[in-house]
Amino acid sequence: MSTAPSLLQMLFGLYGYLIPLFLYVMWSTLALHDLGQRGELGAGRVWGWTTAIYLLPFVGPLLYLSIGGARLSRFARMIGILGGIGIYAIVLVIASALSSG
User: Fold this and answer.
1) What CA–CA distance (Å, rounded) separates 6 from 3?
2) What per-residue confidence (pLDDT) applies to 101?
3) Burial class of 51 by CB neighbour count within 10 A (0 to 12, 13 to 18, 19+)
4) How far apart, in whole angstroms, are the C-alpha atoms of residue 31 and residue 3?
5) Which of 60, 76, 79, 94 has CB atoms 3.0–4.6 Å from 52's, for a disulfide?
6) Average pLDDT per run of 10 along the chain, which is 101 residues long?
7) How high is the pLDDT of residue 12?
8) How far apart are CA 81 and CA 62, in angstroms?
9) In angstroms, what CA-CA distances link 8 with 11, 14, 53, 68, 98?
10) CA 86 to chain CA mean position, Å
11) CA-CA distance, 60 to 54, in Å (whole number)?
């Protein structure tokens, strides 16, 4: 007989679904904002990166922020990318520990 999940299990399960959505929105917004500020890029490169950001969820924004020449400071890019991934990993570990125990 199964028991109902606790409030903590439900919250971490919810965060496990919402954090990836938040990360995608954050990374896409950072990438598109930075892309819009770069006047030196040609229209073709801007359209190419914009297409990649929208059509390749997670991968497109991460590629632009890491190798696309984003003008954001390296610190801001690393905090945004690695901090988001780290928080998601922590939530997944806690959620799996709560569900198994």
Assistant:
1) 9
2) 61
3) exposed
4) 44
5) 60
6) 74 82 91 89 91 93 87 86 88 81 61
7) 77
8) 7
9) 5, 10, 34, 39, 8
10) 11
11) 7
Q: Which among 18, 36, 30 has a CA at the least distance from the CA of 61?
A: 30
Tell me, yes or no, if the pTM score tops 0.70. yes
Phi, psi torsion values for 38, nearest 5 degrees: -90, 100
Instruction: Provide the token pair at 53.
Output: 């950001």
Separation CA 60–CA 56 (nearest Å): 5
Nearest CA-CA partner of 22 in 61, 70, 64:
61
Report the C-alpha gap between 45 and 74 in whole angstroms: 21
Q: What is the dihedral of CA 92, 86, 84, 17, to 10 degrees?
A: 0
CA distances from 89 to 20, 23, 37, 44, 82 (A): 11, 12, 32, 36, 10
Sign of the CA dihedral with 19 first, then 63, 82, and 70 last: negative
Q: List helix spans (H) across the chain.
A: 7-37, 43-55, 59-67, 74-78, 84-100
Question: What is the token pair recorded at 14?
Answer: 């919810």
